[in-house]
Input
Amino acid sequence: MEKKHKELQLWARLWRWAKTLFFVLTMLASLLLVCAPPLFVVVLDLLLPTSFLSSYFRSSSRLSATRLADQFRDFHFRSSLVDVPLVSAARSLVILCAYAACGGRGVYLGITTLCSFTSACYVLVKSIVMLGVASGEWGRRHRDFGEKGGAAAVEALFLSSLALAVAHLVVAYRTSCRERRKLLVYRIDIEAVKLKGVQTKGVK
Output
């Protein structure tokens, strides 16, 4: 009886910790999404492709024992996957630097458009080459990626990288529009203050 009571206390404590962690993560995500959407997308772009690649390595018995250094040394565009998270990380860091240096102005939108377009093209071409969509080898490629979720992890890796490239572009456009609206309101306020000053001098 006492043992069962201790187990219930342990599960209750773990459940409280899980709820607290979920609440903190939700608050952080909401804060990033509301206050700094570009930073939120950057965090997702750094985490999601890497997590999908790790899932693929865990699901593939053939690659689980292969070190990451070997993947870099034996890199092949048609068979290696380690470059997809690297492309996403490089894209995110460049966009983050542009956002930190330029704010939401036009330069930030231009750099984001260039990085998103080039990285999306690279990932799209690589996905077509690796998955064999262009040559009708989808079934064979699908089997080569393993039976225990390996193919699903590879598909999720490519789709997440492409989706986050589009997300970077959408967020950059919305941020640029918001900054332009702020600048327009600021100019209207300045012109209103100047006009009020001229009218005051005319009355005197």
Q: What stands out?
A: The radius of gyration is 25 Å. Residues 114 and 197 are 45 Å apart (CA to CA). Residues 150-203 form the longest helix (54 residues).
